[in-house]
Recover the amino acids of this structure.
C-alpha cells in the first residue's frame, strides 16, 4: 500500500543541525510522518559514525512519534520504494543548493518516476548553515551552539577534546 501521508527525508546528518530540524518541522505541517533516512556510505569518511549519527537523531526526536529514524545503504529510491513511500523531502537553502538538488531529483525521477521530490525552504537564519561548515568551525576551535541541538554542540566539543 502506498503511504501518501508519509515522506522520507534523506541525508548524511554528519551532524544534525537546527537547519535539518527546521526542515523536518516544516515537513510535518504537510505530512503525518517523516522518515529520517541516514545514509550509510562505506566509501565516505564521516566525522560521526552511523551509530552516532542515528543516536543523535534518536535523542533529539525521542518524544516525537511522527518522526522515525532509520538508516539506509544503496540507492535512495530503492529504500523509498521498499517503504511504500512516494515522496522525498529535501531542503533548499540557497541558489547554490539548487543545481545538485535539481540533478538528484531528476535522476531519482528517471530511475523511479513514481517518486516525487518536494523541497522546503528553511528559516533564513539557517540559510547559511551546513554540517560541513559546522565541523570546520569546531575543528578550528570555534563554536556555533545557537545553530545546533545541545547534544551536537557537546559531541563536537568532545570529539575535538574541548571542555
Ligand atoms: O546530507 P546530504 O549528504 O546532502 O544527503 C545526500 C543524499 C543522502 C540525499 C544523497 O547522497 C543520496 O541520496 N545518496 C544515496 C545514493 C543514491 O541514491 N544516489 C543517487 C542520487 S541521484
Amino acid at each position: 500500500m502506498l503511504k501518501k501521508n508519509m515522506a522520507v527525508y534523506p541525508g548524511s546528518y554528519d551532524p544534525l543541525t537546527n537547519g535539518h530540524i527546521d526542515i523536518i518541522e516544516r515537513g510535518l505541517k504537510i505530512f503525518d510522518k517523516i522518515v529520517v533516512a541516514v545514509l550509510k556510505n562505506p566509501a565516505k569518511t564521516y566525522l560521526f559514525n552511523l551509530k552516532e549519527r542515528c543516536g543523535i537523531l534518536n535523542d533529539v526526536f525521542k518524544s516525537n512519534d511522527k518522526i522515525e529514524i532509520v538508516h539506509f545503504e544503496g540507492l535512495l529510491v530503492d529504500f523509498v520504494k521498499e517503504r511504500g513511500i512516494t515522496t522525498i523531502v529535501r531542503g533548499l537553502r540557497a541558489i547554490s543548493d539548487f543545481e545538485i538538488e535539481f540533478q538528484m531529483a531528476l535522476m531519482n525521477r528517471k530511475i523511479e518516476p513514481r517518486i516525487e521530490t518536494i523541497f522546503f525552504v528553511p528559516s533564513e537564519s539557517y540559510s547559511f548553515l551546513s554540517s560541513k561548515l559546522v565541523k570546520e568551525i569546531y575543528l578550528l576551535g570555534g563554536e556555533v551552539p545557537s545553530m545546533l541541538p545541545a547534544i551536537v554542540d557537546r559531541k563536537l566539543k568532545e570529539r575535538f577534546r574541548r571542555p
User: Anything to note?
Assistant: The first strand starts at residue 6 and ends at 11. The chain has a mean pLDDT of 96.
